[in-house]
Design a protein that fits this description.
This protein is an alpha/beta fold and 657 residues long. The chain contains 18 helices and 29 strands. It is 33% helix and 21% strand. The structure holds alpha-D-galactopyranose (GLA). It is an enzyme of class 3 (hydrolase).
Length: 657
Amino acid sequence: MTTQRLVRRLGGLAFGGDYNPEQWDKSVWEEDDELMRRAGVNLATVGVFSWALLEPREGHFDFSWLDAHLDRLHANGIAVDLATPTASPPPWFTLAHPDALPVTADGTRLVHGSRDTYCLAAPAYRGAARRIATVLAERYGDHPAVAMWHVHNEYATLCWCEHTAAAFRVWLHARHGSLDALNEAWGTTFWSQHYTSWDQVLPPRATQWHHNPGQRLDFSRFWSDEALAAYIDQRDAIRAHSDRPVTTNLMVPGYQNLDLWAFGREVDLVAIDHYPIAPGVDAAADIAFGGDRARSFGGGRPWLLMEQGANTIYAGDRVLAKDPGEILRHSLGHIAHGSEGALFFQWRQSKAGAEMWHSAMVPHAGPDSRTFREVTELGEALTRLGEVAGSTVRAEVAVLHDSDSWWAMDVDGLPSAELDYLGALRRAHRALWDAGVTTDFARPDDDLSRYRLVLAPALFLLSDASAENLRRYVADGGTLLVQHFNGVVDARFHARLGGCPAAPLREALGIRVEEYRPLRRDERIVLSDGSHGTVWSESVRLEGAESVAAYTNGTAALTRHRHGNGRGWYLSTRLDDANYAVLIDRLLAQAGVAPDLPGLPFGVEAVTRHAPDGRRWHFVLNHTAEVVPLPEPGHDLLTGATARELPPGGCVVLRLP
Ligand code: GLA
């Protein structure tokens, strides 16, 4: 519903980016108008970092600047994604509310001078954020330029201050009910951590050695809930005055201070920022990983790529420049996986300030540049793709993905330093992507019946209910692969006693894991079928399953079990990539899952979008440097002609008959 409204409003896919005109003067604004028209921009995110301008003194607002820009953009035919500026409080806020600044785990109170200097749990911050969201919504709630609302920017900042401690205690009380229950859940009898009053309970601040794992996990859960509550505060303040969709830009793929499933339920439209962290084909796989997650967080609904880079992006210790053609191919990658458009951070590259080296649609060199030419080509391409807006992506395979497990695997002192939640999730998705198969992510307690194959690469924490859900999925005919160190702790972070994984799931797998044998850092073991394992191994006892591949001592490493109408597979080591790919291909074949477009070579991606009325389009993206013939010629929306092959780096969007 929300998406349909946005599609109707934009007349097709969204194209544009963050627009921060406060950095420029009138002559540049006039050029912006002309260049946005030339590029085909139809949506601009305005006001993300404009708090100081909109509220120059606490409680004193000045809207003349924003009034003028909204009117100007509207007159130019550009819809506005109006932001609340709460990710960057002005310096007056620090001086007025020093208690609302964030405190790091080691007790350092941060000050302004950057951005995101606030504590989400501080009443003064929450009040100030709600107030500016309210006044913006009152003034612009039905402004004709405003197509949607962009609350805050990337809820990222953590805090360990006294306000956080107080809010954490309230949250813990609600979750556990009593201090006794908290002590029991956290296992505080060990290491003499027993709490006798609530004020002794702290957020996991810097301490001597390992934190209590229950405390760490609960803090992650709490913080995500706190951030979501801060979002909901603003969303509801806006909804009271505006009927336009409200969202916030989530960070994928690696950032995990938030339960993105929970955010997916509260936003009107999932929006993500995605800056791939590797070049070439790996960037394309990363885009697919982020896109499939974004779609899944929204329950399969179309979503929106809110930010990407037009060229150089800061990627940890590396700056990745985009190669010619990647602006289009990366954008189409996101759209193939369900995005309703392609937006960038930001429209015009800053000439000064902290992000002056972050690329933009209009670079420092100006419009006479390769970047701007490619941006303009993208705008034209998206106009031609208008008919796909509102369509969705379908998958027959799911990878299970759960915030509790991710957070739980983040604690100190696990039995191997190489157990890596995100790595395991990415590998499973990548193996499916390499096989040409479109993948959903799902939660372990979701109804999985629509999937032919489900992979559980890293469900370290598994509740009783989820374990039973997975058993039932297999019994009802599904194929399930569970990988090592799964179902090891329950929802309280207590070890499962009597063997792993959690009991009802063991039934579906026909095995019981007795012991772990983490491998040494460079150890690489050979299994009986010639495949190789690293990182981890286990003593697996067969309780009905057959051994498909064994360790050198003859015990099972990979098993298969028929349970009800389905099959449960268990893999107790980390296979090398090539061996893992062979296993995934075998499972896909057994489950009867085919690629979206069979017959394409490695590095050529094909994803299908489906309209509710039955129309379909194949997005086929050539991430290789070779010319690739298409399995069948088809009508390409991008050129309006029949396509028979893909040039190196080329893309087609085929309308299916
Ligand atoms: C995020 C932020 C932007 C900008 C970019 C830089 O996506 O939302 O404000 O800082 O990162 O990559």
